Amino acid sequence: MLRFKLKISRRWMTASIITWLAWVLLVPPAAQAVVPAADFTATPQSGVVPLQVQFTDLSTGDVTSWSWDFNGDSVEDSVDQHPLVTYSAPGTYSVTLTATGPDGADSLTKADLIVVDQPLPLADFAATPLSGVAPLPVQFTDQSTGDVTSWSWDLDGDSIQDSTVQHPSFTYATPGTYSVTLTVTDPGGTSSKTETDLIVVTYPPPVAQFIADPSEGTKPLTVSFTNESLGEITGYAWHFDADGIPDSFADNPVHTFADSGTYTVRLVATGPGGEDEEVKTDYITVTEPAPVAGFVSDVTSGFAPLLVTFMDTSDGVRTQWSWDLDGDGQPDSDLQNPAFTYVAAGTYTVSLTVTGPGGSDTATVVDYVTVTDPPP
């Protein structure tokens, strides 16, 4: 009985083996389904937004469909076999591929596979104007790229923060050449830009001006000039006689005008910002002084009729003479050196009035001429 059972088992095992071999050998390969094994690669796996990643399916087995989750939220994002994906927000992303075939499905998750960083900002700016005279106001305009959240400006090159606004304005009060640095910050980091010797501030030209005391008088006229020029000044040149040659380089000169006339005065002030001049036309008037009247005569007494010759001894420029030779208040001669005959005995007062460009003067001598009757 035992032998019979063993024979039956061996016959059954042999039949099973034969049946399996026949199935393997006779069934075509297409009918032999293979369970998928999900696999994939990604290139690149890190970078800054926007980051474009190419996913490549490397799954094995009979795969008929693909399901991708690119951001770890368990929501299907693509059914392509080799999808191209753009990550537009910074972060770290897990990726899952589920490969499905006739005989089943398989999933592969690669945790924290894609790392997307915020890009660094790029500092940039413009300024206008770039040069001018002090005080110079300059407007700065931020032209940085990125999600900038803060700005730090060093506007005069001293490494000290001058402003934190995005578009500052700044006034340069002192002449010089200034470097400017802008540092910007965003979630991705910090960036700086320095423009060396960007702003050039120069001295304004001086403003020449002056006064004189006195501005008129008789010759020789001594005049004190007071310089009232404004600005940064390194030198002065004064012109008093319009001959084109400087007459003084002093700050506040004193000048004597020896001759009568009308004089134009010119002051040229020079500084690092240039030069300026003030011209005052016919500013100084110098006149001749009034003459000083005086006279003498060849005789002062005698018998009538007495001929007396008078001689003008006045000082100064004279152009007119008026003689009252008999003291009656009436002019008797307009000659410079007249001769006059006294016919009647008496004592006579003589006056001479001389006139010139500077005025008039009168000299009077009382009882200057004494005339007596001749003896019988």
Order of helices and strands: HEEEEEEEEEEEEEEEEEEEEEEEEEEEE
The amount of helix comes to under 10%
Q: What form results from the Cα inertia axes?
A: rod-shaped
Strand content range: over 45%
Q: Report the mean per-residue pLDDT as an integer.
A: 91
Gyration radius, in Å: 60 Å
- What profile does the largest beta sheet have? 4 strands, mixed
Number of strands: 28
Spans of at least 5 consecutive residues whose pLDDT stays below 50 are 1-31
Classification by helices and strands: mainly beta
Which sequence of strands runs across the widest sheet? Answer: 2-7-6-4
Q: In angstroms, what separates the terminal alpha carbons?
A: 228 Å
Count of DSSP H/I helices:
1
Task: Give structural notes.
With 376 residues, this protein is mostly beta strands. It has one helix at 2-26; strands spanning 40-43, 46-48, 51-57, 65-69, 84-87, 91-101, 104-117, 125-128, 131-133, 136-142, 150-154, 169-172, 176-186, 189-202, 210-213, 216-218, 221-227, 235-239, 254-257, 261-271, 274-287, 295-297, 301-303, 306-312, 320-324, 339-342, 346-356, 359-372. Strands 2-7-6-4 form a four-stranded mixed β-sheet, with no helix packed on it. A four-stranded mixed β-sheet has the order 9-14-13-11, with no helix packed on it. The chain has a four-stranded mixed β-sheet with strand order 16-21-20-18, with no helix packed on it. A hairpin with a 2-residue loop joins strand 13 (176-186) and strand 14.
